[in-house]
Amino acid sequence: MNLEFINALDEIEKDKGISKEVLLEAIESALLSAYKKDFGSKENVRVELDSDQGEVKVYSRKKVVEEVENENFEIPLEKAKEKDPNYEVGDILEKEVTPDNFGRIAAQTAKQVVMQRIREAERDVIYDHYKRKEGELITGTIQRFHYDNILIDMGKTEAILPPPEQIPGEVYEKGKRIKLYIAEVSTTTKGPRILVSRTHPSLLKRLFELEVPEIFDGTVEIKAVAREAGYRSKMAVTSDEENVDPVGACVGPKGMRVQAVVDQLNGEKIDIIKWNDDPAELIANALNPAEVLKVITDDEAQEAKVIVPDFQLSLAIGKEGQNARLAAKLTGWKVDIKKESEYVFDDEETDSEVEEIDNSEEEL
User: How far, in Å, CA of 87 to CA of 73, rounded?
Assistant: First the structure.
């Protein structure tokens, strides 16, 4: 085998981070398979690769026994002693059986093994890189379409944007750069599989982190997000700083910050509401832009009955129930909306059970 090739393993170890010893072991294992395949050997053999000289030798190995049951793996003690009188039962007798043209086969096999290991190492590097980025925002370029999947060029590799993760109605054009949420990174026999999303609720979070410095530095916290991608989203925010308006910070001057996020999401409407630890207040806020008169909560069942003016009922429920559905997702409560004229208060309902609501949140 070419000695220069052996020496090149040192460079591969340095550049690719693949241990030279690991490569040599892999080459020896592959050479053993190549020998058995090309020379039809059924014997027990081992391959030795001299990393200093580049020489490859093949040795047959037979166990010394009193009585031979398998000639491919065993040799009688009497015959072994002819070669060396010191042999005893249980010893291993080795004999070189290197074929004359095995050097050429060894060189070809070694190159294939090294190239395969390099590809595997590069796949591992890509997997580790993007596994650390799982749950983060990235920018990719639409490269091509495969059935209903969209393949995204991320530089060193491709990511998959499957149909369920695509925003309904959004137009995807080859060469267009889009922001995506890394939903899942896994390994396959063909390398890392990177699943990205345009519909994940956390995509909304990451986009606001980019646009709102107060979120990025922790002054404003996003407490919850509910999203029906392509149509409408609701986001609840809060701040520990008394002089910071969390909703205003997210909306931005003249609505510029929230509009920048809307533009990234194909015109998706976004309601930004103020978080409240009181479930009744939070539910009322979550039904924004509808006006809420009262909220009656059942903490044990996690259910809330919401009373709204008659003329606000359709607004509170929303088109096809979307506003009420998003409010329920955002708060984690089951929400039952009633109009004022149809609701009759029971005498047992106390002021602690029925809360007057001041609905004054901002909406885009």
Answer: 16
